[in-house]
Design brief:
This protein is α+β, with helices and mostly antiparallel strands. The chain has 9 helices and 8 strands.
Length: 188
Amino acid sequence: MELHPLKIHIDEIIPLTSEEFDYVLNHFTAVNKRKHQFIVQEGELIDKEFWVIKGCLKSYFFDDTGKEHILQFAMENWWVTDYDAFTNQTAAKIAVDCLEDCELLYITYANREKLSQEMHQMERFWAKKTKLGYVALQNRVLSLMRNTAKERYDSLFKQYPHLFQRVPKKMIAAYLGVSRETLSRLDS
C-alpha cells in the first residue's frame, strides 16, 4: 500500500500511526486549482493554510508603484498562505496564486488549533515547521541585505535548480529584488 504524501511529510518530523494519520487527514480538504487561480487574495479574511501536493504557487504583493514583489514560491511539500492573516484571523496583505495547475490540501485555522490541542504530536509538528519557516525567512532577509544580486541568483539556482524551469524569469527577478534586465546579465 502506497503511503499518502502528507503522511510521508509529517513522518519526517513526527511519526504517526495509520489510525492517527487518518484522523489528521480527516481535518484536511483536498482542492484542485487551475493555473492563475488564487488561493489567497489581498483583502480577504484568511482561515486556511495550504499544503502543496503537486504544482507551483507564488505569494506576492504589488507596491504603490505597481512593482511586483514575490515573497515565496511554494512547490511540492511546501506550506503556503498569508501567515499574518492566518495566525491573526485578519485580512490578507498578500496574494497567493497558482503558477501551474495545483493539487492542494488545506486545513482551516480552527481544525489546526483543534488538532494541536488533541494531539501533541501535531502541535510539535507545526512548531517544528514554524521554526524551519522562520529560519528560512531569516536567511532570505539576510541574503537580501548582505549578498549581491549575483550571489542571490547563484544561491537560488544552487538550492532550487528546477524552479528555473517552472517559473518565468521576470518572476525570478521579482523574487530576487532585481530588474528583468539585471537578471539577464546574471543569467549569462
